[in-house]
Amino acid sequence: MGKIRVGLIGIGNCASAIVQSVLLSKKKGIIEGLLYPEIAGYKISDIEFTLAIDVDRRKIGKDLTQAIFEGSNIFPKLDDYSPIGVTVQPGPVLDGVAEHMEAYFQPHDMKIEIDDIARLVKDTETEILVNMIPVGSEQATRAYAEAAIRGGAAFINGIPVFIASDPTGYWPKRFFDAGLPVLGDDVKGQFGATILHSALTSLMRDRGIIVEETYQLNVGGNTDFLNMKMEERLSSKRISKTKAVTATLDNGDRYIYDGKVRIGPSDYVPFLGNTKVAYIYIKGRSLLGFPVELDIKLKVDDKSMFAAVMLDVIRLAKLSLDRGLRGPIHEASAYYFKHPPKPVRSPLEARILLEQFITGKQRNTVIENIVSYTQ
Ligand SMILES: NC(=O)c1ccc[n+]([C@@H]2O[C@H](COP(=O)([O-])OP(=O)(O)OC[C@H]3O[C@@H](n4cnc5c(N)ncnc54)[C@H](O)[C@@H]3O)[C@@H](O)[C@H]2O)c1
């Protein structure tokens, strides 16, 4: 198979997990814990990093294999790596670094334009850009989406800014018109709180249980959680996480209006590091109104959860490019993102769509929808 030329934006803990997984797979042949060892012939060892962008002075100018251990990154070093010749380049800071995060991300003070990034994308022949900057980076994410379009790369948006799922249709149409795929938004971790919560609520719905109320509280101890202490940066994260669950329930938005659902990052507990602890509570009624109640605690390494998904999505973006697909790739986004272009009713439904997409049995139907409502 051909190589997959990937640019990473935001060289934080998620990037470290992705880069190390790829480098280890090149060395060992295969690594454990992948959702798909192979997607349409592509293995994760086919991924080549061609571009890396960050704003942290301690990461800029370093080889990617070194930058992943700099600054506030705490994802463990799993092996020794030789330099790969990809030096971290400065990106535009914009709203990427909240005031309370300045000591943690130590941003540069250079003026970087969208066209600087677009030029880097072109010069390095990067075909896919992956966005992994802090939650709340609305302007910066849009700047990178624009740079992807101008530079001619597909865009994967790992964070809760609505690009692939932009309700105004602006970004879907921009990517469609540019002939480029866009996948997103906001990664749904491999076995994280969102996939577990939505699997439970969709199972309850299928089994005739009437869900009455539910919450999901999440705590963690890395810069991702520290950044999310600022509630103003969180609004789209709450929407994204909440809608992923309410989409599985009949008349799901009612739970939001009635205040019967509360989902989101809840606190920063420094000693947890990259371990995320999620508490999920669901209360419902069965036949004749008898109560059903569920309390679950989940504990995972949040960054391996992200990387496992992203390693699939990168290969799906490549498959989309190979097939000449453009605009939001709904079928590949529904299974892997909390806020996809079109919500699905259950993880199973999303999985079926995905399988059909990989085997080429499903067209990228959302393209027609977007074109019809934006014309
Ligand atoms: N399971 C998960 O970990 C998960 C799931 C869904 C979404 N996400 C999201 O993925 C993103 C990355 O997570 P992380 O743990 O790697 O974060 P992190 O805090 O470890 O790293 C963020 C990086 O972004 C850099 N950055 C800040 N502003 C930037 C800008 N304008 N341009 C380029 N780089 C910039 C920072 O310097 C830092 O290196 C976060 O938004 C997180 O919420 C993570």
Structure description:
The protein has 375 residues and is α/β, with parallel strands linked by helices. It folds into two domains: 4-188 and 304-369, Rossmann fold (3-Layer(aba) Sandwich); 193-301, Dihydrodipicolinate Reductase, domain 2, CATH 3.30.360.10. 37% of the residues lie in helices and 19% in strands. It contains 14 helices and eleven strands. It has helices at residues 13-28, 64-67, 102-105, 114-123, 138-151, 170-178, 193-206, 223-227, 235-246, 253-257, 302-322, 330-333, 347-358, 366-374, and strands at 4-9, 47-54, 89-90, 128-131, 154-157, 181-183, 210-220, 261-268, 275-285, 291-301, 327-328. Strands 3-2-1-4-5-6-11 form a seven-stranded parallel beta sheet, with helices on both faces. β5 (154-157), α6 (170-178) and β6 form a beta-alpha-beta unit. The chain binds nicotinamide-adenine-dinucleotide.
**Strand order across the largest sheet:** 3-2-1-4-5-6-11
Shape: globular
Query: How helix-rich are the residues, as a percent range?
Result: 25-40%
Element-by-element helix/strand order: EHEHEHHEHEHEHEHHHEEEHEHHH
Features:
Dihydrodipicolinate Reductase, domain 2; alpha/beta; 375 residues; 4-stranded mixed beta sheet; binds nicotinamide-adenine-dinucleotide; Rossmann fold; 7-stranded parallel beta sheet
